[in-house]
Amino acid sequence: MKRKFINLVLLAATAFGAGSCLGDMDIEQKSKITATNMWLDEDDALGAMNGLYHQLRAAFQTAIIYWGDYRAGTFADGAGGSGSCKKMFNNVLDSSETKGTNWASSYTAINDANLIIKHVPGISFSNETNKNLVLANAYFVRAYIYFNIARVWGDAPLLLSGFESSDADLQPFREDEELIYAQVAQDIESALGLMPESAADCTIGTRSAVQMLKADYNLWLYQTREGGDTALTAADEALAEVFKDGRLQLLGSYADVFDITKKNNAEIILTLHLGQGEFEGGFASTYLLPQTRFHSAAEHIETHVKLMTSDDQRFIFSPSLVELMYRDERDTRTKVSYGDWTDADEGYRYTWVNKFAGLWEDNKRYFISDIPLYRYAEALLFKAEIENEKGNTPTALEYLNRVAKRAYGVENYYTTTDYYDFKEALMTEYLKEFAGEGKSWWNYIRLGLAFTKIESLRGRQNETNILLWPIANACMSENPNIRQTVGYK
């Protein structure tokens, strides 16, 4: 008798609990969701989209930082670190690693999207625009997740049908990664074909969010998968559509982008929404210092509350990233991203990641800083990257320097017109602009700098699939058809 791959496909109802912020939409979900009462009307469909984003947050709130930063040499153990991520930091992963290697929650979200695609076309809506919005978001989220699955694991199961029950006898094989990438492209176009122009909530998909994914995807194809000029052109055209969106702009202050009182600002294209009493957490709870670590807690409690949390500090920016951030004292991003304070009386130096500190209220820390997935600054740097690849380095400098001007307060901060020097400058800005946002690993790989700039990867370019991830033992034990990523034990 076959064993059930329960970790891959879970009961759809588990994903349709708490909701995400959906702007002006008033969604009242049914108290119990089953295959018979879930897909009856428009409210069910909107509730399903709401649940889809809840599951996306659950799947990506920590995975995004594991996949996007912890292997890139940008993080190290904090003051209370236990070495729990040493394998990631040193790029010596194996199947015993549990962080970032289990794809179950990602496939749960994919199943939620599949169910929407399966059932919503048969539901009558009072407004066809809302129907298109729900379907477009299902295709968009599925594309976003499969894009990440392909980059993380390469070959993977490709599931396109929704299952309502965990009793489904499902034991898929890993499909060739080319099929995964092809599905991403198809889903992006399906999302664009349906997404209403009026969609404007950055906590769910919009046309600009889909275009950012399209640019990201095609840049990845061009730089890492021999996508050629076709992919580069597609990325450029997608960004052109983003730049047409009058709601978006580069904010004048970097600090304002992450200000807890200025959520969903004009720089945010897509974000994972976290809310007090609704959905709290993310990776930032391990970045601050608990009050118990203060040598003079009572004396400094009011002036340094941003350090304070009930959790211990497990992770901090690596010395190499800190050195880079402090290299130019004019850089206004440093103090937003990183905290550094020495108690002169005690002679003790405190450091912490400052960017996603959340809210300190009533002597309690609420981790409700949203996690941005795409920002306007990234669109500008993507454009700079594209222009440099096209041989238009002077034009590339214009886009790079728009981001640099906000950071350093000077015009024409970068002046090089050499292709390779520009890539170095671009990588520097990616690291500093998106410190702690789960981007550095992908940028290193895409720019071809992973084996020269990441200390733990130098000289290892011939190791099989070293840039991919192993599969957790739990995934393989639940499904004997799943084989470990080649090159890993």
What can you see in these coordinates?
This protein is mostly helical. Among the domains are: 7-198 and 462-489, Serine Threonine Protein Phosphatase 5, Tetratricopeptide repeat; 374-457, Serine Threonine Protein Phosphatase 5, Tetratricopeptide repeat, CATH 1.25.40.900. Helix content is 42%, strand content 7%. The chain has helices at 42-60, 63-68, 86-89, 104-119, 128-153, 177-194, 207-224, 228-243, 254-258, 297-300, 319-325, 333-337, 376-389, 393-408, 419-433, 440-446, 450-453, 473-478; strands spanning 75-77, 268-272, 315-317, 338-343, 348-353, 359-361, 364-366, 371-375. The strands form four sheets. It has a two-stranded antiparallel sheet. The chain has a two-stranded antiparallel sheet with strand order 2-8. Strand 4 (338-343) and strand 5 form a beta hairpin. The longest helix is centred in the first third of the chain and has 26 residues, at 128-153. 48% of the residues are buried. Mean pLDDT is 88; it is low at 1-33.
Question: Topology, pairings included?
Answer:
Blueprint: H1 42-60, H2 63-68, E1 75-77, H3 86-89, H4 104-119, H5 128-153, H6 177-194, H7 207-224, H8 228-243, H9 254-258, E2 268-272, H10 297-300, E3 315-317, H11 319-325, H12 333-337, E4 338-343, E5 348-353, E6 359-361, E7 364-366, E8 371-375, H13 376-389, H14 393-408, H15 419-433, H16 440-446, H17 450-453, H18 473-478
Antiparallel strand pairs: 1-3, 2-8, 4-5, 6-7
